[in-house]
Amino acid sequence: MGGESEHVIESGNHHRCANEVSAQACLTVAVDDAAMRRVEAFVSAFAAEHGLCADDRARTLIVLEELITNLRKYGYAEWPRPGVAEVILSLEPGPQLVIELIDQGQAFDPFAPQAPDLDRPLDARPVGGLGLHIVHALTEGRRYRRVGEHNVTELLLRVELFDTP
Asked: What is the domain-level CATH number for residue 132?
């Protein structure tokens, strides 16, 4: 497809077929000051319903907060009003959680920038980049695609489930 670029960093194969997804939920959210409150409620409800452990719920929220904060500050910086993002959570066998973030912000591959040099003294490092480094550290797989006017960012987390009541 013309206008599509892709950068993939992943561990294992996480291409999905409809019968491999055991649970899926979607949230469309305005990327504004209240976005993370709505995302947190959405992730918390999904985690409770499907038995995600507290650590995996927290990892999910940390990576989404970083990506949505960057989207708000940079992806939609030139927009006169808040842009919109779609968050899709898919629980798959393994178990693993696939997080998809789809937006129409400026094209940006969050996995293309070089990782920060953490061995350099703090005052010798450029500002920024640590949040995306944390996203990388908290996920087992990452994939970015630009499809037409949309950024499609996918993250893979291996998760632990507990029995739900």
From this structure: 3.30.565.10
pLDDT at 85: 96
In a domain, 70, yes or no: yes
Domain ranges, residue 69:
5-158
Question: What predicted TM-score, i.e. pTM, was given to this entire model?
Answer: 0.79
pLDDT for 126 beyond 80: no
Residue 160 CB neighbour total at 10 angstroms: 11
Tokens of 137: 């550290």
In a domain, 14, yes or no: yes
- Tell me how far CA of residue 26 lies from CA of 43, 87, 90, 139, in angstroms: 10, 6, 9, 20
Measured over the CA atoms of residue 93, residue 99, residue 102 and residue 107, the dihedral's sign is negative
pLDDT at 165 over 80: no
Find the mean pLDDT for residues 105-113: 82
Q: Which residue has the tokens 């550290």?
A: 137
Q: Which of 130, 131, 155, 154 is nearest to 69 (CA)?
A: 131
Domain tally, the chain: 1
Q: Is residue 96 part of a domain?
A: yes
Query: If you ran DSSP here, which 8-state letter would residue 76 be given?
Result: T
- Average pLDDT of span 14-22: 56
143 lies in some domain: yes
